[in-house]
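Checklist before submission:
- one chain only
- standard amino acids only
- sequence pasted in full

Submission:
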Amino acid sequence: MKREIQIHPLEPIFDENSRILILGTFPSVKSRETKFYYGHPQNRFWKVISTLVGEAIPTTIEEKTTLLLRHGIALWDVLASCEIKGSSDSSISNPKPNDIGAIIQKTQLRQIFTNGKKAQQLYEKFIAPQINMEAHCLPSTSPANGRFHLEELLSAWKVIATYLVETKRVV
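Returned file contents:
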């Protein structure tokens, strides 16, 4: 498999009430196929987020979007385009960043988190100098990150809970 130029196919998820922004690196092949973030069935992102907010794991794009927005979570990726081999972050070359500043201007962001070390590295290189806002690196939810079991991911990711919007739950 050779590197191919890819353009980010997904719109950012956010609204004016978003308090945190979670940034991945670039959509995986599966995410590009399913036309939504973290589309690989083994990626633990949706399991982690739903557990942290105490809700059922969303299955549809609408349910995923609603879950994020209900809790003040914005979601996007660091890169707008790059050359990439399949879904391998380590194969990325010629990266071009997304305009994260556009989201910051339209939200109430208090903290940015990156989903994995590669997202953090690219964020620090391309975005942090422009927007002057540090990001907190969380361990990747990718199935390629077998080092972290679900319990360890939940423990590390619980730091986002202090920034989430309180929701009124209907019983």
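Reviewer check: The two ends are 50 Å apart (CA to CA).
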